[in-house]
Input
Amino acid sequence: MGAVALAYRSFAAREARGRSVAYEELAQEVAGDEALVAFIASLPPAKQQPQLFFAAARYLLGFPPGIGELRELASRSRAELAQVILARSTQTNEPARCAIVLPVLAQLPPPLALVEVGASAGLTLLVDRYSYDYGGHRVAGGDPLAPTLRCRPSGPVPLPARVPAIAWRAGLDLSPLDIASDDDARWLSCLVWPGEGDRAERLRAAMAVARRDPPVVHRGDLLTGLPALVAQAPAGTTVVVYHTSVLYQVAPHGREQFAATVRGLGVTWVSSEAPGIVPGTAMPAVDDQMCVLARDGRPVARADSHGAWLDWLV
Ligand SMILES: C[S@@+](CC[C@H](N)C(=O)[O-])C[C@H]1O[C@@H](n2cnc3c(N)ncnc32)[C@H](O)[C@@H]1O
Output
């Protein structure tokens, strides 16, 4: 039980601070509550994370919980709460991550065939539908109703003149979310932390875009399903395999295995993951949210993992 309290305190101090006052306070309160800590400790270790617990409570309540509501839920609706936690996982799908990968994608010969692993609901497959604003440099996307993704560039970012032509796209996920399902859309919304600026609104707008023309996300494991999916890409396209904030969910030996598989496919590989998660991309992090953008395993930029800034390496 000591480990759970410690993990929630660490989450408050390292992850929630500066990002969500509500979750920072809630995680501290949970860490000091014996009954809640006991409930969390009864869950499998992979299901004990604060962001999953809080999202599940929000999913059941319909609003972000306070400590009182969490206590009540965990005592009165314990089985129901545990069921949501066991059935769901943290599959945050952040469209703004497209602003990180776009400059690399726009450098490749079009048309592109996109294969995204860990695609969740497919919102990060819609790179060409969103519009972008890189510190005043605007790039028009293909859907006038889609949100504009704002990203602060620094260093020699190769800012694109336009979004690339995409001939084909497909996602792969262990447990794809169905953008057409109200339940899955609600779960995605519950994964946004309270107080995170415009994320909730951006997600709502991106989900509306995806619902008009849903991207295909296949169920499968990135460790085994990638070659068959890449083989479906049409001839005459530049095939790009990419992933954002996914490989931290894969064990280190699996990341090595994945890297070897991608390298053997003869595709362009674009990744945006925390430093060192992709083999060969370790570097000092400026904060807990920093990720490394890499092309074919070679770092090209540092970025905010939610797409707020992009700093090109010289
Ligand atoms: C944090 S979400 C990120 C989603 C999306 N890439 C984004 O940046 O918004 C990670 C996703 O990776 C998926 N995932 C984790 N391990 C996987 C695996 N071995 N194979 C396929 N998908 C996996 C999860 O199901 C989840 O949807």
Q: What stands out?
A: The CA atoms of residues 131 and 140 lie 5 Å apart.
